[in-house]
Amino acid sequence: MIAPVVDVAWLAEHPEAVLADLRWHLDGRSGLDAHARGHIPNSVFVDLPTVLAAEPTPDGGRHPLPTPEVFAAGMRAAGISDDSVVVAYDDAGGASAARLVWLLRSRGVDAALLDGGIDAWPGELATGVWTPPAPGEFTARPWDPAGLATIDDAATARHVVDARASERYRGETEPIDPRAGHIPGAISLPFAGNLDADGRFLPPDALAERFRAAGLSQDAEVIVYCGSGVTACHNLIALERAGFGRLRLYPGSWSQYAATERPAAIGDDPGTRPAVHVV
C-alpha cells in the first residue's frame, strides 16, 4: 500500500496513477463546473454526493456510505480498477478528496491524497468539459465492518475524535445539523489542524505529537466523526500518516447523532458518557 499522502514529485514518478478531482462545496457550487474551468491534466472527476454517499436520511445522516454497488459503478465510470493507483485532490486541503482515499484504502486499493491539492500543481491546468474515460474493472464488495463504527460505538468508545471546527464542537454554532454540540466524551481535533499555513500536511512526527497531546496513543482504537463522515476521513488519513493503525470511521457522524434524543455536550469539556468500553 502506498503512503496515504503523496506530493507532485511522487506523482511525476508514477505516471500510471489515476488522478481524481474531488472538488465539492457545501455552498452548492458545482465541482464539475470547477473541473471544466481548470483541472490537473488527465484527471477524472468524481462526484462526492452521488458516488461516495447514499441519499441523506435522518437515520443515516447527510452522507451515508454508498452501497458497494453504487461505489463500484462510480469507480468504473471514472476509469478506476481494482489494481489502479489513485491520487485524489481538491481545493480544500483534502477535505473532500480524503473520503475517496479512505474508501479506496479500506478496500485495499492503492490511493493517496495529493499534498496541497490543485494549488500544488506546478504546470498549466487543463480546461474543458470532462469526458468519461474507458470504464475500469472495479469489483463491488461489502464494506469491511472492522473499519466502521456505529452510533453506539461512537457514544461509548474510549477514544472518539470530532473533526469539525472548534466552534461547532463547542456548540456555539450549528449551520447544518439539527442540534449543536458534540458527542459526550469526544475530543476536538479539527481536521484543518493537520495542515500547515500553506495547506500542506504536517510531517508524520508533528501529526503524531498533535494526536498524542490530545490523549491518543498509537496502539489505541480511535473512532473519528465529523458533521457527515466526510472530513472525518481527513483525520483518518492524518492518523495513518502519523503511524496510528486501529482506526474507524463513524459514517453517520453528528448529522445522524443530532437527529436522535441522545445527550449532547456543549463547550470545551468533552463531557462524560454513561458507559465506556476500554479499547
In words, what does this structure look like?
Helices cover 25% and strands 11% of the residues. It is of the alpha/beta class and 279 residues long. The chain folds into 2 domains: 5-143, Oxidized Rhodanese, domain 1 (3-Layer(aba) Sandwich); 146-257, Rhodanese-like domain (Oxidized Rhodanese, domain 1, 3-Layer(aba) Sandwich). The strands form 2 sheets. A 5-stranded parallel sheet has the order 1-5-4-2-3, with helices on both faces. A 4-stranded parallel sheet has the order 7-6-8-9. Helix 5 (97-106) links the parallel strand 4 (85-89) and strand 5 (110-114). Helix 5 crosses helix 9 (232-241). The longest helix has 10 residues, at 68-77. The protein is globular and about 50 Å long. The mean pLDDT is 95.
Order of helices and strands: EHEHEHHEHEHEHEHEHEH
Q: What is the top-level CATH class of the largest domain? A: Alpha Beta
Helix content: 25-40%
Category by helix and strand content? alpha/beta
Q: Order the strands across the largest sheet as they lie in space.
A: 1-5-4-2-3
The count of DSSP E runs of length 2 or more, i.e. the number of strands, is 9
Q: Tell me, rounded to a whole number, the average pLDDT.
A: 95
- Main pleated sheet: 5 strands, parallel
- Work out the strand percent: 5-15%
- At CATH level 2, the architecture of the largest domain is 3-Layer(aba) Sandwich
Molecular shape: globular
With helices defined by DSSP (H or I, 4 residues minimum), what is the helix count? 10
CATH topology of the largest domain: Oxidized Rhodanese, domain 1
Low-confidence stretches: none
Q: What distance lies between the first and last C-alpha atoms, to the nearest angstrom?
A: 26 Å
The radius of gyration computed from the alpha-carbon positions, rounded to a whole number of angstroms, is 18 Å
What is the CATH homology-level superfamily of the largest domain? Rhodanese-like domain
What's the structural domain tally?
2
Domain Rhodanese: 13-127, 159-266
Pfam families: Rhodanese
Keywords: Repeat, Transferase
InterPro entries: Rhodanese-like_dom, Rhodanese-like_dom_sf, TST/MPST-like
